[in-house]
Amino acid sequence: MTHLYKAIFIVAALGLSACTNPGALNGGNGMGNGGAGMGQGTGTASDPHSAAYFQQTVGDRVLFAVDTSTLTPEGRATLMGQAKWLMDNPEFAAIIEGHADEQGTRAYNLALGARRANAVSEFLISQGVAGSRLRTVTYGKERPIAVCSEESCYAQNRRAVTVISAGAGA
Angle at which helices 106-126 and 73-88 pack, to 10 degrees? Predict the structure, then answer.
């Protein structure tokens, strides 16, 4: 393979990987705000078997306190709803995204985001969701939903978002 083909292949791969964030296409607002967004077949919020219902009614995210990956009582309640929804809709799989606020180093926040995503994944598994349907990813502080250097923004960015996609379930 020539260097030109290798370069084309690398550029194409990078371009495709950049397309894995549907939330980036809507400017970070609305559906998928703060997460990668929903997968295929989002449906409507009035359909209890739709991804839109999951995001808007069940809730697709949990928030964390500073420097922790410990689930809050509110977070656990949201995750119990997510677990029930995932059990009722086995055709969906989920990617759990771990995020952090802008405080701290990049490496620290990537590790913290990973711990947050893992905490959510472990909780969902403990509620009966098959681990084979869940994946985790960390974005650290790279994908904030609120951009400012105030606690109100930091609090929104310390989160784990459960992004579901159809067709990849059990």
Answer: 60
Domain that holds residue 76: 51-166
Please give the tally of structural domains in the chain.
1
Residue 92 inside a domain? The answer is yes
CA distance 37 to 30: 9
Mean pLDDT of 148-169: 90
Instruction: Kindly state whether residue 16 falls inside one of the protein's structural domains.
Output: no
The model's confidence at residue 2, banded by pLDDT at 50, 70 and 90, is low
Contact 51, 164 (CB under 8 A): yes
User: How many residues comprise the chain?
Assistant: 170
Mean pLDDT, the chain, whole residue set? 83
Backbone angles phi, psi at 60, to 5 degrees: -100, 5
CATH number of the domain that residue 85 is part of: 3.30.1330.60
CA distance 8 to 61: 37
What are residue 142's DSSP bridge partners? none
The answer to whether 151 and 110 are in contact (CB under 8 A) is: no
